[in-house]
Design goal:
globular; Cyclase family protein; nine-stranded mixed beta sheet; 21 strands; two-stranded antiparallel ribbon; 2 domains; alpha+beta; single chain; 339 residues; binds acetylphosphate
């Protein structure tokens, strides 16, 4: 164990869960927190919280992320697909298929790993800012891209496999912003979010997962894999990452993750402010970089939200492990809600 920093960012919790901690606020998912989540299971119904992973379609939402591409290995004269095992032994009557896929880890329903967003920050106190991530893990050493190392690279620290190892189960709380704002673009700050909590009589406890239903994924689905980037950019609510009251509440609430059905949870780009240097993704900065709070994006909540609304509930049991894929900065997933 070694301290990687002399200065920690203001308002951060670096070191509080241990100098080598790589899961941040997931440390607050205690056995009690999971049991509180499990007590939300009263009907035995479950809901899939993922888009089909080939949505949104195309790359209008983010030019650097592309839809899945399948590959098939060759086997014998053809491919290893509808392959007759009789060519192995003439008595075999089996037919088998295998496939492979190139999957961008953040194309569709996803988790952001803590290695996804860092900041230029003077962590070593030499007066010169360097690229660092949660808990002081360093770009170019702990998290290295192909331009920085000839080795295996990727997120040697803070990769998504750390989140996978925690199991990712607990109490989810769904806040229904869609019923308040419809398809209107709304920048939701602390006061708006608290008013949504009050209307729903919803409560969040330390160790809970905050989920935000905005209707964005429903709109994506309705576009049938031909997403209109301009329409999406001006539709549905997003959090106001520039609202200090909202950021303070995220710190104080004890929530362990924020999972939304929209593109980036927060307004992206966030509105400009005065200053020489500041985060363009302030909620990502506050959550991933300062506090070790994972963000989930492009989740799908429609049926769960309808059911919870009809039953006057907000809480549910959430099961949401990412792929245990070493060194990845994000992961597709298929979360499940049980009520
Ligand atoms: C961005 O880069 C905007 O990231 P995310 O997928 O976390 O929204």
């Amino acid at each position: 164990m070694s301290q990687r920093w002399k200065n920690r960012p203001e308002g951060s919790n670096w070191g509080d869960f241990g100098l080598d901690d790589q899961v941040g606020r997931m440390n607050l998912v205690t056995p009690e927190a999971r049991l509180r989540g499990a007590r939300e299971i009263r009907e035995g119904l479950s809901f899939c919280l993922s888009l089909p992973l080939d949505y949104p379609g195309g790359n209008a939402l983010m030019p650097y992320r592309r839809e899945p591409v399948f590959h098939y290995e060759r086997r014998g004269e053809g491919h290893n697909y509808n392959f007759r095992l009789s060519s192995v032994s003439s008595c075999y009557c089996d037919v088998v298929s295998d496939d492979a896929v190139t999957l961008y880890t953040q194309y569709s329903t996803q988790w952001d790993a803590l290695a996804h967003v860092g900041q230029l920050f003077d962590a070593d106190g030499d007066g010169v800012p360097e690229k660092v991530y949660y808990n002081g893990f360093r770009a170019g050493e702990d998290i290295s891209g192909p331009d920085e190392t000839a080795g295996p690279g990727g997120a040697q620290a803070l990769g998504i496999e750390n989140l996978a190892r925690t199991g990712v189960q607990g109490r989810g709380v769904l806040i229904d912003l869609e019923s308040r704002y419809g398809r209107e673009r709304a920048i939701v700050g602390y006061d708006d979010l608290m008013s949504a909590f009050d209307d729903q009589k919803a409560e969040i406890h330390s160790g809970d997962f905050l989920c935000l239903y905005t209707g964005f994924a429903d709109l994506v689905l309705s576009m049938n894999k031909q997403p209109d980037g301009d329409v999406l950019a001006r539709s549905c609510p997003v959090l106001d990452g520039r609202d200090p009251k909202l950021l303070n509440w995220v710190t104080d609430s004890g929530l362990v993750a924020i999972c939304a059905d929209n593109f980036a949870v927060e307004a992206y780009p966030a509105r400009m402010i005065e200053g020489e240097s500041f985060p363009g993704l302030p909620l990502h900065n506050h959550c991933l970089f300062k506090l070790g709070i994972h963000l989930g994006e492009l989740w799908y909540f429609r049926e769960l939200a309808d059911w919870l609304r009809r039953n006057d509930r907000s809480g549910f049991f959430l099961t949401a492990p990412p792929l245990r894929l070493p060194r990845a900065v994000g992961s597709p997933l298929t979360p499940v809600a049980t009520v």
